[in-house]
């Protein structure tokens, strides 16, 4: 099976599609940039980008949203004239990287009596939500509160599995697992900074590998962040990249 960015789950709805782009909108969580954006099918000419930019900014302003975000075609660099315009307009530019692994290729992980990974149920949902809130509050209370509601909806969705890792009984790590016919996608993997470098992230991933040993495990990493180096060491295979740009109007 060929894995592409099309296999990555998006918490959003396509509200407009034309020959140039898809417009994704998620009224359930307006503050989530990764759910509210335009994705170009081909690189726009500068005047086309400016028209799309004006359209999205007006659309977002009507919904009380202060950001605009755009994704570009996979495995292609942004043209120089567009980069110049984005820099001039003080956009942030970044890129995502796609990784996949067969579960039997994941390195051995030693068991630790201090770490326990649990599937989230009614019994431990409150602890899971509390840790998620603690991680999300750095993005503002509005975002953190909306994310709690999103996590509650995910909890009810049979295509998702939420996990919480305990360190000596204290919630220390979380992840969402998005399940499809052929893949299991690791999303929203996070370990509380108090408990980092104790092997919790690896234990969570090993639980995923053991649970979905018949599927390809996939994930997207920030191309400018350090976790991608960990994934490479863990035998994940790099499959491609995608540039994006975003701007927040204060």
**How widely separated are the two ends?**
44 Å
Helix/strand/pairing class, anyone? alpha+beta
Q: If you average the pLDDT, what whole number results?
A: 95
As a whole number of angstroms, the C-alpha radius of gyration is 19 Å
Structure description:
This protein is α+β, with helices and mostly antiparallel strands. 29% of the residues lie in helices and 32% in strands. It is built from 6 helices and 11 strands. The chain has helices at 46-62, 80-88, 125-136, 141-156, 200-211, 227-233; strands spanning 13-17, 21-25, 37-40, 67-71, 92-101, 115-119, 160-167, 170-179, 183-191, 216-222, 237-248. It has an 11-stranded mixed sheet with strand order 1-2-3-4-11-5-10-9-8-7-6, sandwiched between helices. It is globular, with a radius of gyration of 19 Å.
Structure summary:
With 250 residues, the chain is α+β, with helices and mostly antiparallel strands.
């Amino acid at each position: 099976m060929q894995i592409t960015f099309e296999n990555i789950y998006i918490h959003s709805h396509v509200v407009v599609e034309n020959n140039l782009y898809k417009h994704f909108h998620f009224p359930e969580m307006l503050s989530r940039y990764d759910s509210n954006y335009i994705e170009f099918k081909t690189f726009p000419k500068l005047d086309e980008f400016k028209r799309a930019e004006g359209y999205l900014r007006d659309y977002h302003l009507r919904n009380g949203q202060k950001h605009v975000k755009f994704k570009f075609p996979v495995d292609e660099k942004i043209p120089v004239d567009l980069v110049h315009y984005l820099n001039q307009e003080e956009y942030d530019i970044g890129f995502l990287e796609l990784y996949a692994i067969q579960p039997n290729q994941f390195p051995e992980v030693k068991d630790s009596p201090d770490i326990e990974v649990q599937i989230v149920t009614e019994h431990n949902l409150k602890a899971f939500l509390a840790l998620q809130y603690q991680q999300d509050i750095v993005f503002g209370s509005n975002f953190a509160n909306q994310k709690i509601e999103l996590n509650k909806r995910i909890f009810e969705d049979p295509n998702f599995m939420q996990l919480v890792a305990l360190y000596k009984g204290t919630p220390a790590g979380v992840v969402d697992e998005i399940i499809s016919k052929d893949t299991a996608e690791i999303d929203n993997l996070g370990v509380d900074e108090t408990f980092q470098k104790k092997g919790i992230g690896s234990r969570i991933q090993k639980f995923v590998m053991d649970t979905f040993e018949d599927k390809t495990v996939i994930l997207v990493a920030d191309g400018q962040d350090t976790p991608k180096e960990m994934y490479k060491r863990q035998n994940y295979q790099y499959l491609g990249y995608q540039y994006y740009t975003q701007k927040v109007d204060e």
